[in-house]
Amino acid sequence: AQSVTQPDIHITVSEGASLELRCNYSYGATPYLFWYVQSPGQGLQLLLKYFSGDTLVQGIKGFEAEFKRSQSSFNLRKPSVHWSDAAEYFCAVGPFNTNAGKSTFGDGTTLTVKP
Amino acid sequence: DGGITQSPKYLFRKEGQNVTLSCEQNLNHDAMYWYRQDPGQGLRLIYYSQIVNDFQKGDIAEGYSVSREKKESFPLTVTSAQKNPTAFYLCASSIYRAHSNQPQHFGDGTRLSIL
Fold it and tell me: Which residues on B lie below 8 Å from A46 (Cβ)?
């Protein structure tokens, strides 16, 4: 069965510092990988996705993520964090060769940004 | 602009009462999903539907029911059998293609509380 692990429940960084949020997945084939962001009381917004090809993917709001098959990881990065980036971040993995069309979500990482 | 509309934003349920959460999308997506979100537990799939007049149970379907009579609409009923309904409920939709997986678009959620 597929699964997603986000090892860090809560991360605090200073504004302007770099950020890396970790995501590890378990899936037997090539996964479809996503990062979403959720502001308090809101739905989830897609930041970026990886389906195939270049393992470094660019997303919205200056985020990027790198797919590393050997480490089963899809970590999210941003070179300089802004106060508005404070939110909860979810990694998700989608099945490949199936018609279930479902995604499995990690438990989320809450990002706090210090001034 | 296309999107997903969830209503109401806040909902209160009395003991023994059924309540229905609305989800409407104008994205022309085939697939729709309902998730429950509790603090620290990420998103858990309740029900999903890949096509009109068909739906499947997710991981935590007990105490919930759905219908999919129209492509645009996927209402969720929280029945009196759901003993712990207090949570944030998220509706999502996506393009459905066999052997593929598309990112999900989310509504802004409904927060359900017990009176």
Answer: 103-105
